[in-house]
Amino acid sequence: MLSREDNELISRVGPGTPMGNLMRNYWLPSMLSSELPTPDSDPLRVKLLGEQLIAFRDTRGQVGLMQHNCPHRGASLFFGRSEEEGLRCVYHGWKFDVQGNCIDMPNEPAESDFKHKVKAVAYPTRERNGVIWAYLGPRVDPPPLPDLEPNMRPELDLSVYVSQQEANWLQVLEGDIDTVHAGFLHSGSISPEERQPGSHTQYMIMDRTAHFEVVDTPGGSLSGAWRAGPPGMSYWRLAYFLFPVYDMPAPGLLGHKVSCICRVPMDDEHTISFFMNAGRGPGDFGNPTVPNASDWLGRFRTEAAPDNDFLLDRAIQRGNKGRWGYSGIPGGAAMQDAAMTWSMGPIFDRTSERLGSTDAMIIRVRRRLIAAATALRDRGVVPPGVDQPEAYRVRSGGAFLPEDANWLEATQQWRAAFVDHPDLDPSIVGPL
């Protein structure tokens, strides 16, 4: 159970907050490249870490991300003209390049040098395999991008699915690293006999609890949850948290799955999620999005949402059969997870929780976040992983291990990213 002070610390991400300052040390996914499809395409409203920003792609294809208020008199640059290697405010014609430099000030006399004294707040961006990353931090020379395999190996058929939730970023992320809920929310109505004999999912359903071991890593934390497996074996589910907003959940085959979820705070009460995967298309997530609108919260809204009770079907729930029977929420894990974490409210009061032994990973991650944010605030300590892109070179998933195996040593080769294991058979996982 958290104190009220710590609950506020880990929840609030606006400018000047301890957690907001921590997050500004890292590169964060901010947009899809497809949202700025061509040079000089329409500007885009982007809300990130509580800041209202305008993104644009200039004539040369570079992406700019800057404050939405023009430095002149505050008109929003969303209404600006993207033209001739800059974004021009239509109020008085001031134009800015992707670095925020004022490169034209046509309402001033020709002899004036005032434009050289004006600069808009602008943030560095990097584009990598369909994702536009943003750095809102203090460094003139930003740190390297994290070595996240599902955003770095296009030969593996990478995809990105994006969705938004009206919920605090951490309560959304905690749903990913809470591995025991899969035996209930996603498969509570399924019996072991209905699953592939000897598969991971059969053993998960045979024993819907687990024993946890959690360790810290250079980039965050790693949990190992084990239960009985085949004779002489244990079934392990390994999941990662990676600073500041990344996680790699346990479903899938360890060593084979290449996947990561990025739970990026738009503000304290809205989260935009980037699901990065190899060999899995955006249509596989089961919670379709509606067409984007142009307002600050108009991007990647989902069809299933609180106003339609996430399409909850009580008849299916009462029937208690099949993959949706337990929850009655169709569409798969992403929609069911969103219903749970969204239903907690914009920011859940964690002081009212009663956590058990299977919440070990959630407890550890909160402690790591609090420790890192306060160390930065009080002593200026650089947070974990900022200058260690290699700390993100990891994979998660499940595996059968001998009962007496040291789980960290036995899984080391499979947890390493950028290593292929053609001998592994993903069919052993079985269907959820």
Task: Give me some keywords for this one.
alpha+beta, 432 residues, four-stranded antiparallel sheet, 8 helices, 18 strands, Rieske Iron-sulfur Protein, Naphthalene 1,2-dioxygenase Alpha Subunit, Chain A, domain 1
Strand content: 15-25%
- Which structural class do you get from the secondary structure elements? alpha+beta
The helix content, as a percent range, equals 10-25%
Shape: elongated
CATH architecture of the largest domain: Alpha-Beta Complex
Query: N-to-C terminal Cα separation, in Å?
Result: 31 Å
Write the layout of secondary structure elements.
Blueprint: H1 4-11, H2 18-23, E1 27-32, E2 44-48, E3 51-57, E4 63-67, E5 81-83, E6 86-88, E7 95-96, E8 102-104, E9 125-128, E10 131-135, E11 158-165, H3 169-177, H4 200-206, E12 211-217, E13 220-228, E14 233-242, E15 246-248, E16 259-267, E17 270-278, H5 314-319, H6 333-343, H7 360-379, E18 397-402, H8 407-415
Antiparallel strand pairs: 1-10, 2-3, 3-4, 5-6, 6-7, 7-8, 9-10, 11-17, 12-13, 13-14, 14-15, 14-18, 15-16, 16-17
Helix pairs in contact: 3-6
